[in-house]
Amino acid sequence: MTPLLATVTRKEARIALFGAAALAVAATLPLFDTGFYLSLALNVAMYVVLCTAWTLFSGPTHYISLASAAFFGIGTYSVALGIDTLPFPLLVAVGFVASAALAGLVGIATLRLSGVYFVIFTLGLAELVRQVVTWAQTNFTHGVGLYVFTDFTETHIYWMLLALAAIVYVTGWLVNRSRLGFALRIIGNDETVARHVGIDTARAKVLLFMISGGFIGIVGACLAPRFAYVEPPSAFNPMISFQVVIMALLGGTGRLWAPLLGVIPFTILFDQVSAYFPNHTSLVIGIAFMAVVYLLPRGVIGFVDDMRRLKKRFRIVLVEDEGALGKERAS
Amino acid sequence: MSATPSLAPILSIDGARKAFGGLVAVNDVSFDVREGELVGLIGPNGSGKTTMLNLISGALRPTSGTISLAGARISGRPAHAIARQGVARTFQLVRILPSMTALENVMAGAVFGHARTWGDDARHVAVALLDRVGLAGRGDAMTGAMTYIDHKRLELARALASNPRLLLLDEWLAGLNPSELKLGIELIRELRADGRTIIMVEHVMDAIRSLCDRCVVMSSGVKIADGDVADVLTRPEVVSAYLGDDDA
């Protein structure tokens, strides 16, 4: 990936510095608490990576993918199947490759589908993979689940996810300033123009879907030790797919870090809801989804942008008024 | 540099046909375009001119027939591959990338098309072309704040940015007011003087008369005339295609 500009702008350097500092501060959390707050922060970190990876593809292309659970589950199973024989880092790499490969296949088969057809296909795919894994386990192995015993504690998993978040942000930034990123912005604007200026639109979309799916697979792989006992309903949980979409849309998909604005409030809300209304979580998720779509169609970031623009316009009006007053005074 | 069309055809269309179910929009049309030529493609509404351009640019695949660019077959290939071979176009209904700046709109052509530049090179190409089409210093402007003719200029700059071997203009002069039209015609004249090979679909007859070396006339999907502009426009079959048989 050749950068569009070889240099890093001041603003980018500032954001990078701020981001690194924020990550460093977040990484100290296990020193203060290894119970409730670490668990909550781990969920936040997990969804930050999932939503940012999801937005890498769905942000510029506007294709809503509900296949996150499939990629996540494949990552989890890569670790669960091989934990007794292979080293953990290698299994994470296997998880990445396997889910990226699945994303590639799905991409080639479906990216010609548009809108609602793509959404339904990805939802069906996640379910299909889950059923296939269940079928394979009941027919070829002794049980439906797999034990994952490691020395990893929640602290280790949390640190892994923070490192992964950093990698995803850097990747997203590199993609944005590469030819591929430029191509996807053009595709998001007008696919006909994109084709006629020489962009292989199918290839660009499949490539990015693979990067996005691969990262989601890594998250699943990192989370496997936390499950301890892995079975299809938990690894391929469709709730993961839905929550990723809701959180990413709540934050907004226009900018790389925007999903963060949705993940933090939603994870905390969801934690509270499942603590106080354990039997009604689906209901609350449904209401939250409708609220996001109706009240914040462009997410928190869109709302912030609108407010800024209003403020700017208001200021221009004020300046013009003062200018007019000044002229009157002069004359 | 004045245009001296060489003999080798840069574009050869041989029996191109496009049928939409029972409707034959382009019916076995053949013609060649030589390097450096400016060919007008004219005809009444619905005669298949835009469909013909779509077949050349790859927006549509011909039902039968072959189209070759500099000897290499391009018909049946996807639009992005044809663009990389060196065909660039503008659209009948202007297509601008709304969330991008004017400069980025032009760079889109420079980065992915026939020229395939990147980084500062692409930027320099885009700045020079904005200057060329009369948008000097407007690179940072958001396209939403621009006028219709500026959109047209921007689209032309984007097409030129790939340094195409063949430029297709689909009613690029349509919808301009008289003074804009004069500017537009002048701009195309300059491109021709640079030696660009151009096919323009156009309804503005003054532009066809003053710009084109040659024109191809289509009616109901069929090519009915091909030749020198002044000669072709007086032929009875061309006059009757435009005005109807009774008036001819």
| CATH H-level homologous superfamily name of the largest domain in chain B | P-loop containing nucleotide triphosphate hydrolases
How many separate domains of chain B? 2
Q: Strands of the biggest beta sheet of chain B: in what spatial order?
A: 6-7-8-3-9-10
Element string of chain B (H = helix, E = strand): EEEHEEHEHHHEHEHEEHH
Number of helices of chain B: 9
Q: Average pLDDT of chain A, to the nearest integer?
A: 86
Q: How much is the radius of gyration of chain A in Å? A: 22 Å
- Give the low-pLDDT segments of chain B: none
Percent helix of chain A, as a range, is over 70%
Q: What is the CATH topology descriptor of the largest domain in chain A?
A: ABC transporter involved in vitamin B12 uptake, BtuC
Largest interface: A-B, 23 and 31 residues
CATH fold-type name of the largest domain in chain B: Rossmann fold
**CATH architecture call of the largest domain in chain A:** Orthogonal Bundle
What's the N-to-C terminus distance of chain A? 60 Å
CATH class of the largest domain in chain B: Alpha Beta
Q: Which secondary-structure class do the elements of chain A indicate? A: mainly alpha
Assembly context of the chains: heterodimer
Kindly give the count of domains of chain A. 2
Number of distinct beta strands of chain A: 2
Radius of gyration of chain B: 18 Å
